[in-house]
Design brief:
Structural class: alpha+beta
Helix content: 40-55%
Distance between the termini: 17 Å
Length: 300
């Protein structure tokens, strides 16, 4: 194939070919599953950087607004930071009451029995009005009894629920009109959120959800429980990856959707599986296993 051919350029764009190690003028085929993994990782990193930048925007704009308002100019109130759980829940409830087309939620962490009880009543009322609903959970939620009951209730009313065993942002969207998402700032309140009705930001948040949604696995509550084991495997893989990246347990716990006790159990099992006696050693062994896997040549 000609090195300047559009066909080769298209293959290179999708990472399906690369230049040879010994002869840079030659091209070698790349296994599609390896190319797909690299492309997805690059896209996810790009989205995470964009989301972090969006989370920082309200803080920057608050400072700008103070200076802007001091000059007696008009100020926008489309985006605001809500600093406590009660106000966040009240704002979301008001948005749900006005929902007419679709509600979208992404819940990467664990949810309490009380939170699920409130959500079940609120979301059932929305679904009974004919509003569509899609929800994305972490696979660890499949082993939670109160989340299972919520999924059974809402899917029975027409909601769609999926689980995704990778890091994704917490968000709530209502009618592509209101968006709520976690504050991406170092000293942000733990249970605060950003609420925006700015159509540009809402559309961007929606595009992030739409990128994650097809990657999720449908949660059908009528299916037998063996799927929970597979979900636990995904969770453990994410724990190992975060541990190898140097994250502390208090950071890992909410990101994989496990309580402190649940994370402790998972880490104990992983230590036994990999023959490790400490978290440091566990992270090292995982890194070694990953490097060994990457150095194994793929068949073309």
């Amino acid at each position: 194939m000609d090195a300047d051919s559009p066909e080769l350029a298209e293959l290179a764009r999708y990472g399906l070919v690369r230049r040879g190690y010994l002869d840079p003028g030659a091209f070698m085929a790349v296994a599609p599953w390896d190319a797909e993994s690299d492309l997805l990782a690059a896209e996810l990193q790009c989205m995470q950087r964009s989301l972090a930048r969006m989370g920082a925007l309200p803080h920057v704009m608050v400072k700008a607004t103070e200076s802007f308002a001091a000059g007696a100019y008009h100020t926008s109130t489309r985006t605001r930071i809500i600093e406590n759980r009660e106000e966040v829940n009240a704002a979301i409830a008001r948005a749900f009451e006005g929902a007419r087309e679709e509600v979208i939620t992404a819940q990467p962490g664990s949810r309490t029995r009380t939170a699920m009880s409130v959500a079940s009543t609120r979301d059932a009322a929305v679904l009974q009005r004919g509003v569509a609903m899609r929800t994305l959970y972490h696979p660890s939620s499949r082993s939670s009894g109160h989340v299972q009951r919520y999924v059974k209730t809402t899917t029975g009313l027409g909601a769609q629920v999926r689980t995704l065993g990778r890091d994704f942002p917490r968000m709530v969207l209502v009618d592509s009109r209101d968006a709520f998402f976690a504050i991406q700032l170092p000293e942000a309140p733990e249970h605060g959120a950003v609420h925006t009705t700015d159509p540009v930001i809402v559309a961007w948040i929606r595009s992030i959800f739409d990128a994650f949604w097809p990657l999720g696995e449908v949660w059908d509550p009528s299916e037998p429980s063996p799927r929970t084991a597979a979900a636990n495997t995904d969770t453990k893989r994410m724990i190992l990856q975060l541990l190898a990246e140097g994250h502390a347990q208090k950071v890992i716990s909410p990101r994989v959707g496990l309580s402190k006790a649940g994370l402790d159990r998972a880490l104990a099992e992983l230590k036994q599986d990999l023959g490790a006696t400490s978290l440091f050693q566990l992270g090292m062994k995982w890194n070694e296993a990953q490097r060994a896997a990457e150095s194994t040549p793929s068949e073309v």
